[in-house]
Each structure stands twice: as structure tokens, then as C-alpha cells.
Amino acid sequence: MSTRALKQNVTGYLFISPFIIGFLAFTFIPILASLYFSFTKYNMFGDPQWIGLQNYEKMFNGDPRYWQSLKVTLLYVIAGVPLRLGFALMVAMILNTASRAVGLYRSLFYLPSLIGGSVAVAIMWRNIFGDEGIINLLLVFLGIPDVRWFGDPTAALWMLIFLSVWQFGSSMLIFLAGLKSIPVTYYEAASVDGANYFQKFSKITLPMLTPVILFNTIMQTIAAFMTFVPAFIISKGTGGPLDGTLLYSLYLFIQGFEFFNMGYASAMAWIMLIIVGILTALIFFSSKFWVHYESEGGK
Amino acid sequence: MQSDVKIKPETNPKGLHVPNVKKPKWWIYHLLVGTFAVLMLYPVIWLLMSSFKPSETIFVTAQSLIPDPWIFSNYGKGWEGIGGNTFGVFIKNTVVLVIFTMIGQVISSAVIAFGFARLTFFGKGFWFALMMVTLMLPYEVVMIPQYIIFAKLGWLDSIKPIAIPAYFGHPFFIFLLVQFIKTIPRELDEAATIDGCGTFKIFYKIILPLIKPALATAAIFSFYWTWDNLLGPVLYLNSPDKYTVSMALNMFLSNETVSNWGAMFAMSIVTLIPVFVVFFLFQRHVVEGISTSGLKG
User: Rounded to 5 degrees, what are φ and ψ at B24?
Assistant: First the structure.
């Protein structure tokens, strides 16, 4: 290696060294440690005891709460992500006009997402869905029987899903950027051919947006899988009622930091990593069939 | 099949797509979209208004927005805080944490991003790919070992476990800054090299001033995520005098007796004020940051 090349390499590594050090210290070593702990019984006070696959066995055979948390989380992801993205796309399309007020609307619709991760919002949500909360008053007013959101496990989970749908803002902004990058000439040409609004949507807008849809779907799925704060606050840390809001992250937290089952929680984290990895891979592979890139030519 | 026929000469220059269907009357559009916006913001308005209602009437009068009578004592009561610490203490703790974290994340991410965007070295592609993978990694996987490491280091009950990792870059911000640096012409670097600037000087004198808008975006998001962070403080802070605002609210909730809703709502509003203020001041950075980089939010 010439001295110049050597110098270049040294400078390069010098600049990215914070990342490498941080990666090793806070990601790589912890991941390996987590894998090791997942085969142990460890409560932080003694030394970890090697117990082989027992944690994993218990997860699959001896812990109904684990299955409940998995079920609740999958429902939360499968119902929440498409609703949220559909909503985001719809609003983005409505806002994709040349009106002057769009900037204002864009900000207003983004606000709930901005504050969404805060405890204040979870507290607020908890109260507007309370037995005497505004949602129930509204239902009664409409002549629909009110719902005991905190008494019924399914209703409580839907309350969490509504909260995530309400925070559609960041996906909406990404969709808006995607919509704006579609050349106007495409629509003009389609108009000349006599295409109507829905034909334009299904033949131009949707295909041109598929890369953005893919990106949003992956990011939102991962984020949804890791949701913690709203479930923690709304159920006061219990995952109730009847484990109806026991999201995976929350149960992992309970196992790790309430029961001090560090080994078991580590095993849960590893299964989570595998599930998120499989979900992401599935979405990626499926994208071959529905994502269109302009460079591929085609229609 | 392109057409030269100008269908709509007035199509605006920004290239926005204006559907060529008959546009509804503008006032119908604004009425519908405006109503929807109010509906979206209703919960926040409700929270704000409830903070001015007497605690015992909040739920009795949940359907009416306007407090009757207006009272402001909830703010005083809430400010008294919990466990002998006023809410001012929690705000101070949070501000200290936010500043330390923000400085660390922005500076280190800028240095790393410069390395990835401008320098050539062996294995760059590998490290960059690795960084992109860590973007998608669930925090839960590293949470427990990190906790154990920080416990062994004796860092529990301090902000160190939350603030110190920030000094090693944040993948989102690194990615954002790399994209931004790539838009800066390389000729600038070359000219500077001819003038005798070394790599570090190029970074410091040329690139850093030019990426200020992107640094601002990163700083703003760093502020939001740290301000709202609950899991970190819940894991690492034990003594109430070190609590952040998120934790304080959480404590309020678990201590809550029905009579004190007003105080809790008032303090919820207090924790949201800085979030709103930053948003209204830096709206453009926030919105563009998400649109271009796909930041979560």
C-alpha cells in the first residue's frame, strides 16, 4: 500500500471511528451478550446459569402470556399499519393540490405524530376513551351503546390501534414528497388519452408510488412491532385489561425489569429480532411483484 | 407517449400534480379539509381546555370544550410536583439531558457522515451497510445487555447511559447528513485542497458551514426524541430528583387520585409546550427532514 493510500485509509477510519466504537460497544457486544443470556437463567444478582434451550421451551410451551403478547402484537401490526398507511395516502392525495393553505394543513395533520410519542398524549388518549370520556359520550349521542374500553381486551387494543392511526403524519409527509415527484406530463398525457381520475390513480399514481409504499411499510412495521410507550402508559404498565394491550415490548420489559428474568427477556428479544427480520424479508421479497421502478422501463 | 399539447398552461411551476378533473369549489375543499383538521386536533384541544377545568368537573363536562368556570390553579397544583420535587426540577433535568444528547448526536453524526460521504477507505461499503442495518434493529435486543453493562459500570441512576451513547453517532442522522453532503459539489473540496487545506480543515471550514440546515434538522429531531423518551429514563433513573418530564407524568398517573386530573392535564400541556414551540419555529426543517429522509416521527 502506498503511503498516500495508507494515509487515506487512516483518515477515513479516524472519521468513522466513533461509529465503529459505538457499534461494537452498544450494539455488537450487547447482541452477542443477549444471545448468551437467552440460554441462561439470570436475575442480575448471581451469575448467569446455563440452562440451554429452557427459556425458548418455556416461551413456546409454558407461558400463555407470551402467546398472548405475540397475538396482540401481530394484531396491532396487521390492523394498524395498513390502516395508518391507507389514511396517510388518502390525506396526502387530498393535500396534493396547489392550494396556498396546504402548508398549514400539512402541519396540522402532522402535529399528532409529532407529539405522539409523549406520555402526555397517552394520558390524554387514556382519558378520552375512559368510561365517561368524550368518545363514549359521542357514541351515546349517536345512539350506539358505549364501549367499556378498559374492561374489554379487544376494545382496549383497538384504542391503541386508533392511537397509532391518528399519528399518520410522518407517512403522509413521505407520501406527499413521493406524489410531488411524479412528473405532471404523465397525467397530461393520460388526459389526452381520455383517462378518468380513477384510471390515473391506478395506472400512474399507485405504480409510481410503490417504492415509497414499500419504504413506509417496512419502517412502519418495524416501528409498530417495537411500540412500547402507549401500551405502558395506557395500561399503567400492566398490559391489561386481561393482557389485552400486552404488546411484545411491554411484556419483555415486564419480564426483564419487573421479574428480573433477564435470560427469559433476552430470549424474547431474540425471537423478536427473528420475527422482525422475517417480516422485513417477506415484504422485500414480495416487493418484486408489486414495486415498479422507473428504470426498469415497462409501462 | 409524450404529448406537446399543453393541457393546462397554468399548472404550477413546482410540478405539483393538479388533477385535471373538475375541481370542487375551493370553499368546499377548505370546509372539508379544515373540519378534518379540527377533528384531528380535537383531542389536543380537549386536553388543553380540560386543564382549565376544576378536576371534579372534567368528566362531567367532557363534551363541552369551554371551561365553566375557567380556573388556573391546576397549573399551580401540578407545578408543586411529586415527592418534594417541583415540576421545575423535572424540566431542568430534561433540558440538561436533551442538551447533552443533542450536542453528542449532532457533532458525532456530522463527523461520521463526512467520513462516509467524502473519504475513500478500505471497507467503507461494509461499514455503511452495517450502519443501515442498525437502523432497523429493535432496541429491545440490546436493551438488557446494555443495562447490565451500565449497571456494572456503576452508571445507574444517572443520565450517562442515555447521554453517552449519543456521542457515537445516530444512524438516522448519519444517513441524513451523508445524503446532504453528497449534494455539495466536490469541486469545493478540491479547490480547498489546492489551497493547502487538509481533510480535517475541509470538514471544518467548508462542509460544516454548508450543512447547517441538515444539522438543524438533526438537532430538532434529537430534541424531540430525547424530550419524549420514556424507556431510557424508566430504565436508568431511580431517584425522583433526577426524573425527566416524561417520568414525572408517568408518576403522576400511577399516583393519581381521581381528584387531581386537572393538575396532571396541566402538566401534560406544560410538557407539550416546548414541542409545539420548536415545531412552529422550525416547521420547514421538520417537514423537509421527514419528506426527504423518511425520519420516523
Answer: -65, 160
Residues on chain A touching B105 (C-beta within 8 angstroms): none
A115 contacts on B by Cβ (under 8 Å): 44, 228, 272, 275-276
Structural contact between residues B11 and A200, judged by C-beta atoms closer than 8 angstroms: no
Q: How far is B238 from chain A (nearest CA, A)?
A: 13
Q: Concatenated DSSP letters for A23-70?
A: HIIIIIHHHHHHHHHTTEE--SSS--EE-TTHHHHHHHHS-HHHHHHH
Q: Which residues of A touch B181 (CB under 8 A)?
A: none
Please tell me the distance in Å from A7's CA to the nearest CA on chain B. Answer: 9
pLDDT tens across A91-140, in order? Answer: 999 998 877 788 888 889 999 988 887 898 998 898 888 877 888 888 88
Separation in Å, CA of B31 to nearest CA in chain A = 12
* A22 contacts chain B (CB < 8 A): yes
Contact B82, B240 (CB under 8 A): yes
Q: Is A184 helix (H, G, I), strand (E, B) or coil?
A: helix
Bridge partners, residue A49, by sequence = A41
Separation of alpha carbons A2 and A23, rounded Å: 29
- How buried is residue B149: exposed, middle or buried, by Cβ count under 10 Å (0-12/13-18/19+)? middle
Q: What cell was used for B165?
A: 451513547
Picking from A135-144, A218-227, B56-65, which range would have the lowest pLDDT averaged per residue?
Answer: B56-65
- Global pTM reads 0.89
ipTM over 0.95: no
H/E segment holding residue A224: helix A206-225
